[in-house]
Known about the structure:
The chain has helices spanning 6-35, 41-52, 58-67, 90-106, 119-131, 143-151, 159-163, 203-207, 237-246, 279-287, 306-320, 336-339, 352-359, 398-409, 411-421, 434-442, 449-454, 464-480, 482-486, 495-523, and strands spanning 76-82, 110-116, 138-141, 182-183, 186-187, 190-191, 195-202, 216-218, 224-229, 345-349, 366-369, 382-385, 388-391, 456-458. The protein is of the alpha+beta class. A five-stranded mixed β-sheet has the order 2-1-3-13-6. Strands 7, 10, 11, 12 and 14 form a five-stranded mixed β-sheet that branches. It starts with 5 loop residues before the first helix and ends in a 10-residue tail after the last helix.
Amino acid sequence: MDRAVRPSGRRTRRRLLLAALAVVLLGWIGANAATGRGPWAAAGRYAADLFHRAGPTRDLGRRLQRAAGRRPARPIQLRVWDWWSPSTTEDYARYFGEVESIFEARHPDVDVVFQAVPFTNYEQKLATGMLGDNPPDVFQCSVYWAEGLYQRGMLRRLNDFVARTPELQDEQFMLPALYHSRQAGHIFGIPHIVDAASLLWNLDMIRAEPALHDMFERRPDGTPDFRRIRFDAVRDWNHFRQIAQRLTKRDRAEPLQAAAGLGGKPHAGFALDAYGMGARSFMPWAAANGVRFQDRAGRRAQFDTPAAADTLQFLADLYWKHRVCSPFRRELTSHGQFESGEVACAMAGTWSGKYLVRDTQGWMGFGMTAFPPGPNGRGYKTLTWANMMAMSSRCRVPEVAWEYIRLICGLEGSLLRLKHLNQNSPRLDFYEGDAWAREVRQRPYLANVRRICAVGDPLLHTQVQAVEDEVQPILEYVLLNWPEIEAGRGSFRNTQEAIHLAAERVNEVFRRYDRTIRSWDRRRGRLARPEGK
């Protein structure tokens, strides 16, 4: 045997021996805990609880808890997958703990087993899990994958379940929340959270400019409420540019670098992230200018229009012509410059508020709006999407899984997420109760969230990453190199050429995907659909 291999083999045997000893020790601890006697009884109960909360080891934790006499045996097991992990934060632990307690109290024969799967590995794990012995019964599904999973036959149709459940009818939800869970009359998911792109505004900086006080809501006595920005605070793109110019504090020689802004700190009017300017960042502005990214079926690009080219021109001009933006740089988060007080306005999302409060140790001097209408737009717009609860096609207990979906996607589940996660809801009745009104009073930045989500167009939903890989380099190039393009030395003559090329490449992605779907359909014996349908 090669001498270089021996130490590795010796280490492996040591690890196996230690693992065996650990199993024996845990078994002995569990046996003592089960009797409730002995010096290790308390340790056994603690170990069982620890394993119970440890995400992927949760099933082992259940067995340890039963051995410790803490859980009765339940004949039906419901496997639930999620990328929200009880082991990451106390908020998630409390949320899943209460969901579990409520559901199992109502269904004494059911053992809910959660498995946390990291978001980046989620789709791959689902695909492999469906082929294995322990696929999930029900799981949180992102709009990024929902269409593809359904086309691959991995999601169960829910039409029959919905038809007999009054509280989960379509009219119970805001319309944009339904975009991504329905296709050609087939329902394959029920929305349970809703998000939208939004503009974040630093209200402290706006307050420092008396000429901008009309952007705030008014109190009954007519004075501005500096905690709340009006939903329609920005009239249109020209008004946005004027506000950004007023909020840009700079020095004559070095704009944005050595100025005396709010509190003596320089800041820009708007953060434009050229390095992250893909379809998901570009399209909220384009939607406000009357542009749709793709058709409803997700097989054809619809953004090869003059309005889309004008949108890209508007963003380039904000940076290069009007100089209201901070210097381009790569950011780990979409609102990093906003958190640090370097900009007055930034793009983020309706979900961002609780993370801003956390990261700034309690600061709530910000508000949110949708995107103001462009020259070709009709009203305030954004992009909206709703992740969903879905049932796998290999679900072993569909009736039990549907009862779980009813809890999670009903009003009760929405209120649980508000209680533990400060999460809003796609349900209309959620916003009519006292709980949401109380949350808005405590967190005024949420005041416009419902209206922002309600005016959204659909987020890109077909081959999301493949499309981004095609679009992002083109949009980044235009924003980073606009002076060269304007001088006639660039790869494009104008923004319309860049948008046209991006649309061509997206259509090629869609064509490849359509061919793939046809192959899946033939494999399952389904009739091939007409081209592009």
